[in-house]
Amino acid sequence: MSIIKKVVVQAAALSVLASAGSAYAYDVTLKPFTDVTHEDWFQNEVYSLSAIGIIDGYSDLTYKPDGTLTREAFVKLLMNAKQENMAAGTVVPGTPVDVEQGRWSYPFVSAAYERKWIDFMLDSQGKFHPDNAITREEVASVVGKALLDAQTAEARNLWTVQGWQDEKAKSNFADSEALNPNLRPYAYFAVNQGIMEGDETGFHPQQSLTRKEAAAIIYRFIQTEVAARELETVGFYAINSYPAIKHMPQLDQVSFGWSHLNYATPGNAQLETATTEYRIPSGWEEVVQTANAAKIEKSLMVYYGGKNLADFLKDGPAQQAFIQSLKAVLTDARYGFTGVTMDFEGLMDASSAPDYSQFLKALKAAIPNYPLTVAVQPDYYYKGYDLKEINALADTVILMAYDFTHNDSKLPSAPLPLVNDAVKRALAFVPKEKLVLGISKQANQWITANGSSELYNPDIAAVEKRLTTPGITQTMSLPYFLREIAFQDDRGSHDIYYEDTASVDKKVWLAKYYGLKGISLWYMGNYTESDWTLFQSK
């Protein structure tokens, strides 16, 4: 396998990570469950829900898939899946008398009760019995009620009058008469929507629900909402992206990586478009014409990651000169740019945050008719991005939720639990309607020999070729949701984590789950035909 780049020094954040004395300096679960294997039918569901924080395991790294679930535990799962806002301290009149306000499940049970999803579970004394094991009949009914709530009044009426009876005849469960007659309309709606099913012996309404069944049900419940959501797709046309030019019609916006900040001396800076890999390429006319024919937005991406970025953000004259040179290119009618994407990277010190916001404010004032997109790095170590201020200035914010790579621990670039956590942190300041999840098509390769390991970034084409060769093992690494490839050769043992089509798909799923504005693809030339087929299907 050819290697295009040995990683000598990772991002500055990695040195902080290493000095923390921990392989994983993040408050997320990055270890697999010991009792959920690749052979288990519920593996995808368990790890997907774990990645987005809906389900938890135990301190001994087990999930206990065959354990039963209580009523209150299932209600919590459902309310979290719905992403319902349950304000702490809110008192709901009439909440079950045996779910006190101080109980851990109170916010979830009270929210579900307020929506009339669990009223059928209360006994004659108004008790919910939260510790009782929940039955399949109860699960189907509460899920059915939640699903019907999202329907129109007309659709609900049609279902409760006749629709459920048609589904009952279609399903033909051997024990259908064992279902509570009052709950049948709701239970059968859960069946109709593909959330629950029976087997050859029946639906088993009084059977307790297991934790693995709960994971499958909640995952399917989420899928009913995720499937209907649409995402905008931004493609970064940069570096070696010409082979992907034919896929521009699949995009909503293309961001051309054709420029960067040139800041060599104090007081002077300009937009550079003729040197380094971030330059306007020869034959650019064909690319612009293709974008125009596809009728998509065209943004100019401006990159900089130099160590003196913080100095530039304190250099007023240099900023003014740079903004004027950027404006000249941005308004050049030959290109027809419709916006600008600022990709200034490496701002770790919080003292840079107000300077960067002030720069963006000046830039916005100079180009008021051009939508401004700002790419930011996750805030674990990059404190120089004030997301609250950036949100106020930018039309779109791209979260570059990748490059978590850590050499010593072999932590790959974009494990799903970390991507999820980065998104949740960003959503505290940027509304979902404005936030775009950045996805980077890349691979991390560790070669170990004589007791030491070195980290490389292999070429995507080389990884794809390696996948087809004999003598390798490959699995979907969980909880990372990245393709893991292992093999041996004369250089040593190789471990590769690869962002393949399946792992990209899971990140698209995550973006849809949160209802984000869209996804961005860095960079178009790295994505395979299988990836583009995925985007077309979505």
UniProtKB/TrEMBL annotation:
The keyword Signal applies. Residues 29-92, 93-157, 170-232 form the SLH domain. One of its GO terms (molecular function) is chitin binding. Residues 231-538 form the GH18 domain. Residues 1-25 form the signal peptide. It holds the Pfam family Glyco_hydro_18. Keywords: Hydrolase, Signal. It comes from the Bacteria. GO terms for biological process: carbohydrate metabolic process. This is Glycoside hydrolase.
